Amino acid sequence: QVQLVESGGGLVQAGGSLRLSCAASGRTYDMGWFRQAPGKEREFVASITWNRGLTAYADSVKGRFTISRDNAKNTAYLQMNGLKPEDTAVYYCVARSSIVSASWEYWGQGTQVTVAS
Fold first, then answer.
1. 8 Å CB contact between 24 and 75
2. In this structure, what are the phi and psi dihedrals at residue 85, rounded to the nearest 5 degrees?
3. Which DSSP string do the residues of the chain spell out, in sequence order?
4. Residue 77: what pLDDT?
5. CA distance 117 to 110
6. Neighbouring C-beta atoms of residue 67, cutoff 10 Å
7. Contact 97, 30 (CB under 8 A)
8. Are the beta carbons of 72 and 18 closer than 8 angstroms?
9. N or C: which end of the chain has fewer CB within 10 A?
10. What is the distance between the alpha carbons of residues 43 and 91, in angstroms, rounded to a whole number?
11. Which residues contact residue 52 at a Cβ distance below 8 angstroms, ignoring those fewer than 6 apart?
């Protein structure tokens, strides 16, 4: 069982930046980020494929967030710029266990991001 450990969350003023990291304890394939704000459903934020590094983003974060990964370190990153109060949420790192997996089997424990207006 692969463990995902997020770090880098915190409190930031609107317009500021944060960089989240997600370290995997073992081999993973595609990786990504979800978030859940209070009283709202969990939503997709961004993902990146393991081999070609192809990325996908939610419309709400396009142009502001950048996902990347370092396969040698089994680590994914989420650079968040131009943060808005509506970005406040618990951010979860996710990963797939195989190249053919259709779901996100691995989830981290989450890291809180709070954006003050």
1. yes
2. -55, -35
3. ---EEEE--EEEETT--EEEEEEESS--SSEEEEEE-TTS--EEEEEE-SSS--EEE-TTTTTTEEEEEEGGGTEEEEEE-S--GGG-EEEEEEE-SSTT--S--EE---EEEEEE-
4. 98
5. 22
6. 23
7. no
8. no
9. N
10. 10
11. none
Q: Pull the structure tokens for residue 81.
A: 């710029």
Q: Tell me the C-alpha distance between 75 and 78, whole Å.
A: 10
Q: CA Rg, the chain, in Å?
A: 13
pLDDT tens, residue by residue, 61-109: 999 999 999 999 999 999 999 999 999 999 999 999 988 888 999 999 9
Which amino acid belongs to residue 68? S
How far is Cα 82 from Cα 80, in angstroms, rounded to an integer?
7
Measure the N-to-C terminal CA separation of the chain; round to a whole number of Å.
39
Please give the structure tokens belonging to residue 105.
Answer: 């089997």
